[in-house]
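Model: Ready when you are.
Researcher: Fold this.
Model:
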Amino acid sequence: MSFSDGASKSSSKSSTKPTYSRFTQQELPACKPILTPALVMATFIVIGITFIPIGLSHLSASENVVELVDQYDEVCIPADSPDPDVVYSKRIGYIQDETTDKTCIRTLIVPKKMKQPIFVYYQLDQFYQNHRRYVKSRNDEQYRDPSASAKTTNCEPEAQLSEGQPIVPCGLIAWSLFNDTYTLSRNDVALPINKKGIAWESDRTHKFGDNVYSKNFQNRSLIGGGKLIDNIPLNQQEDLLVWMRTAALPNFRKLYGRIETDLEVNEIIKVVIQNNYNTYSFNGKKKLVISTTTWIGGKNDFLGMVYIIVGGVCLLIALVFITVYLIKPRPLGDPSYLSWNKNPASVQ
């Protein structure tokens, strides 16, 4: 083959046009609304008059939630010195002394009638459960399968005892289990707290085994928090399951139990607290929360305020558009000149 023949074939090959496609040319059937002033203003108005009632209904539901919040970390510990350093050292010594009686009695008054079920939470502030090393310090396979008790990968420093025996459940999350307890009564009659069914069903059935038992847990010199019952499987110790679902924010609440009886207005609730959990080392806060719920859940004004603000902004924008359009209208273009209203050019 001559050089001229090869050059002509190469030139012919490089000049080949790509195959026409309606997809690549964006000519497939599609909804292409023309944003006229009337359509834009109507859209903002519809969003505004839809969002504002939704926001008001959320705020109304949040207002109907009856909530008692009692911060007890400072009042339940002795502090008889004005010097903050002395107070700090006394608090640390108090909470770490196992021989000290840590019973604390608090009195709460019900402001409105609270219909059951009434939820009891503990709230911790400035506790960073979302820290990367803390979140990773666990081994889910060990929690599910009794034959994997020796698997303690990622659990350091709470993986094994000094003799090499594995800790079950291992990891910092389980080790720091919350262990304050609350006993409630009214009119000197015990007010039971139901602690069954407070954990997620998926945790009880899938993430924690029904034949996995705690072993060597909290047996080291440094105790992080609560202890577990060795003869009860992990999936039935629901306080542990609730705690193991780490919180995304440093201030969080976790479910402690449910009160399954109504509380009347102005009733006096006596709370006996065992103040065991050490939040004083990192200046954390502890609160007891007793709350009802509505169709939106607990008390939370944020979502309702967002709906109202977005709806109000949309109505304001619509009002501005209407004013500008009435004062200085602009002629609209001819939509027949839009590309999708024309017939596509014939392809050679």
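Researcher: Now this one.
Model:
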Amino acid sequence: MTFEKLKPYLYVIFLQFGNAGLVIIAKAALNQGMNHYTFATYRNLIAALVMAPFALIFERKGRPKLTFSIFLKIMLLGFLEPVVDQNLYYAGMKYTTATFAVAMTNIIPALTFLMAWVCRMEKVNIKKVHSIGKIVGTLVTVGGAMIMTVVAGPAIGLPWTKDSTTKHQQQSATHVSPGDNIKGSMMIIAGCLSWSCFYIVQAITLKSYPAELSLTTLICAAGALQGGIVTVIAEKGHNEAWKLQLDAGLVTMVYVGVICSGLGYYLSGIIMKSKGPVFVTAFNPLSMVIVAVLGSIVLAESLNLGRVLGAVVIVMGLYLVIWGKSKDESQPPTSKCDPNELPPVNHQQMIPMTVTSTRFGKLEMDSVSIAITAN
């Protein structure tokens, strides 16, 4: 497999490493009192400022014209993920736990798959084995993520986690009341739905505005603008919410803005152009595996049988999705010609030619006028 074919896989794995770090540090900053409205606004403002120079330099000549239709799509993108999803997700995380928030994001692949299917952006033929493989693989990855969350099982003793026991987990656990849990769950589910819509609209917008750096910058700028308006309304009279300090909150804003918003939107756009939105979201459950492995190695958190079993199931599901997508790409193009895809005929470029009458025995050709379209 060449590097060009490997790039989408490397990019999407990088995205999941970034998302894994996001949940851990964002939860810590929120617990210290960080305002989620200003956090989302500053996050996208930082991302726009970081990505703008690259867009101006590298896409100076190839940037498409910004039409009113594209502008509306960009404003919608800036509202769906930077404003709606991020605010609802962070607010829901406050009412629940980081583990629950990560687990709920694993419904995004299923939601995106359904939306892409409805919008005819994903090839699905239930008579084909590879199409069934994509559907089953998506469901299996979601199921594996739920196994990691729900199933505990006995602890697995590893050399570097020997001193880590259930006492550490009990100390780090956060008590959540039933009412807050329901409220937070509804917020996170609504945020995930908005996030899935974002991926679909981004894939559609890239077809008419194929400039990933510029699109990322504009999305983040639109998100910062709309998020700022929402923050002013929600935090009216509370000017302290806008105050920045040299603490974990500022570090989180920079990390999330550059890695998750800036590079995240840019790389997901590149992947979508060749693989589609379903491929991007299919790897979301991988972040849970990354969190579990890094938590075991770096934080000496003990692994249990449920996490290992769930990780194995997630890998199996991802394999099915990747296999199904590869079979889609290897399918020969259809021989049917869509008349809507034919280029319009320009009558001003038609060159008249005349075939004169010729006799071959009894065969006679009358004068015929032929028009050839000039390319």
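Researcher: Key takeaway?
Model: Residues 178-208 form the longest helix (31 residues).
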